[in-house]
Amino acid sequence: VYRSGGDSGPQHGHGKTSQGVQSVSIDLSKEEVLVEAALTSTEVQSLIERTGRRAVLKGIGGSKQDLGAAVAMLSGAGSIQGVVRFLQVSEEDCLIDGTIDGLEPGPHGLHVHTLGDLTQDCLSCGEHYNPFGKQHGGPGDSERHVGDLGNIVAGPDGRASFRLEDRQLKVWDVIGRSLVVDSGEDDLGRGGHSLSKLTGNSGDGLACGIIARSAGLFQNPKKICACDGVTLWEERDRPVAGKGRSKINPETPPAHL
Ligand SMILES: [Zn+2]
């Protein structure tokens, strides 16, 4: 279990155990590790796995009562895929935690689009989610689409792992809509291109996923995914979506449920 507070201020100072980690508690009977951290869930997972043990993410939550959580599984052309989680940690703040693999290294625009319609892949997702009729902008601007999340940056390995906090986007407004990662960099409305004030001129949608309601911390006791019978441990070794997901991996140890 990974707990992620929207605020990682001094009120959580239980002594630093690792860079960006405020506290760790382990419950052997439940096979759970609770980590309070200002890191992405992928970073927390790799820190835990550095001990030689395997870990799967069961949920994320804030230190206060969460106001809703959602998840988008992104897939698209080629091998691009990812998981992005949304957690409303307060009325104001939405935490957006994600990892997307298979991208060209460099910046890519990330936006919530109006429609949760993937019938024509990312083309049927509609425009950037813009309930207040504003111009396109950057996440720190007041003049922006609510769906404007700026850029994520993929490293040389093609992975973008990110943790954003947003004060305009609310989980309850975006469930049922879609999240799209674009081929190019979002100019945040400042590029002077004819598309800058509309889309940030960030190119085509490469991968997209519908934003669906999900469980918050401790709300999900499942150990087997009802959708395809994959256990949490088997799931650990599979792609989050796509063809490889149902493939049997002989390396996966049996799950002791
Ligand atoms: Zn926009």
From TrEMBL:
GO biological process terms, alphabetically, are: superoxide metabolic process
Domain Superoxide dismutase copper/zinc binding positions: 80-211
- Source species, domain of life: Eukaryota
Q: Which CDD domains match?
A: Cu-Zn_Superoxide_Dismutase, HMA
What keywords are annotated for this sequence in UniProt?
Answer: Copper, Disulfide bond, Metal-binding, Zinc
User: Cofactor(s) for this protein?
Assistant: Zn(2+)
- UniProt-recorded Gene Ontology molecular function terms: copper ion binding
- What Pfam families does the record tag this protein with? Sod_Cu
Among InterPro entries, the record links this protein to: HMA_dom, SOD-like_Cu/Zn_dom_sf, SOD_Cu/Zn_/chaperone, SOD_Cu_Zn_dom
- Fetch the SUPFAM superfamilies from UniProt: Cu,Zn superoxide dismutase-like (SSF49329)
Q: What residue spans carry the region label Disordered? A: 1-22, 238-257
Q: Which family does it belong to?
A: In the C-terminal section; belongs to the Cu-Zn superoxide dismutase family.
The protein here is known as Superoxide dismutase copper chaperone
Task: State the organism of origin.
Answer: Poecilia reticulata
